[in-house]
Design a protein that fits this description.
This protein has 362 residues and is α+β, with helices and mostly antiparallel strands. The protein contains 10 helices and 18 strands. The longest helix is centred in the middle third of the chain and has 24 residues, at 131-154.
């Protein structure tokens, strides 16, 4: 069974479960998932692309306009993949969905008139990765790690956060990866904001670079920090505590364990290291696939971890953070965004050593 066949079977099972006949996929994330890596976005500031997919009992359709059709055919190879193109001129409304679903019960991956919203269920489908997607995730993560490594080693005191962001964006895009999230903070802004959009502030001695990179629709995430001059004892202590918390997240994320239980184990370490409430100040991450997080983990999450899934945990203590993308294997977990020669903090958990990134000291 091909990757596409497997996904179509999963869609068929989902429709049967909810008693519907057809499914409309409008989100760029769902489009990429269902086409095994196709890109429907033009404007990266919106969740919706310029093509939609419709699956009915009698066919599979790509709904788009005359502008986009040639690229979908020649570069995304969607006609060869078996999608029937349903086109309208760019200046007219495309009535294909109404026509092809007349008399059918419709579901969608977002709000759509007359359709059942199955966005949450489809997020879970996207998170259950195939082996082919796991291999693509390895490639995306390797490229993002390389971009981060080159960018962070190139920055210097006096650069603005905008300039640092430009370096990270350039290195990411030069490797064929879209930087969908690029957060930069320097000095006191690392302590003030969990989601720091870059500004014109000039760096003094401390910088945090956060990257989410997309390729084949898949999104990996990582964070690294660099400090010019000696670290304070406070900052070193916080980074060591975060490394222990992150290592707990990674080792606890094993098949069959609920996400809520993983979360509980990590928050216990927050408390044991002297920071019992810091987890409440920022989300801790969760399963990743065609969104940076397909859904966020919480203390009450009941979903079980599955082999083949990818997770991006991002624990933080005010002024310090640790984040990598990991692949859940049948026997162990693989850190996909490791950077060779990066300084590491070895953490022992249950006789196992888990290396977490330290702050790069220059």
């Amino acid at each position: 069974m091909t990757e596409l066949d497997l996904k179509l079977d999963r869609i068929k099972d989902l429709l049967a479960k909810y008693g519907v006949n057809a499914l409309l996929l409008q989100r760029s994330a769902s489009f990429a998932w269902a086409t095994c890596g196709g890109s429907s976005y033009i404007n990266t500031a919106t969740d919706f692309g310029v093509g939609s997919l419709l699956i009915t009992p009698t066919g599979r359709y790509l709904i788009t306009n005359n502008i986009e059709a040639p690229r979908f055919d020649h570069e995304e190879h969607l006609a060869a993949q078996g999608w029937e193109f349903k086109l309208a001129p760019w200046f007219e409304t495309n009535g294909t969905v109404a026509k092809l679903t007349r008399g059918l019960k419709l579901a969608a991956d977002s709000t759509f008139p007359g359709a059942i919203d199955l966005s949450g269920e489809i997020s879970h489908l996207r998170a259950d990765l195939t082996p082919e997607e796991g291999e693509r995730f390895r490639e995306v993560s390797r490229l993002c790690a390389s971009a981060m490594d080159t960018a962070i080693r190139a920055i210097r005191p006096g650069m603005t956060e905008f300039e640092i962001a430009a370096v990270l964006n350039r290195e990411t895009q030069a490797r064929g990866v879209l930087p969908s999230v690029c957060l930069i903070a320097t000095d006191e802004r690392i302590f003030n904001y969990r989601h720091p959009l870059p500004t014109d502030k000039k760096m003094d001695k401390y910088a945090m670079l956060v990257l989410c990179g997309r390729k084949y629709g898949l999104v990996c995430s990582l964070t690294r920090l660099v400090h010019f001059g000696a670290l304070s004892s406070e900052l070193r202590h916080k980074m060591e505590a975060i490394a222990e918390i992150d290592a707990t997240f990674i080792t606890a994320t094993r098949p069959g364990t609920t996400i809520g239980e993983v979360f509980r184990q990590a928050t216990d370490v927050y408390a044991a290291t002297g920071f019992p409430t810091e987890w409440q100040l920022h989300h801790q991450g969760g399963p990743a696939a065609y969104e940076p997080r397909e859904w966020l983990a919480t203390p009450t999450s009941t979903e079980a971890v599955k082999a083949g899934q990818v997770y991006a945990w991002n624990p933080s203590i005010t002024g310090a953070k640790s984040e990598d993308t990991i692949l859940i294997g049948a026997n162990d977990n693989e850190i996909l965004t490791q950077i060779p020669d990066w300084p590491l903090l070895p953490i022992e958990i249950g006789g196992q050593i888990v290396n977490r990134p330290a702050i790069l000291e220059v």
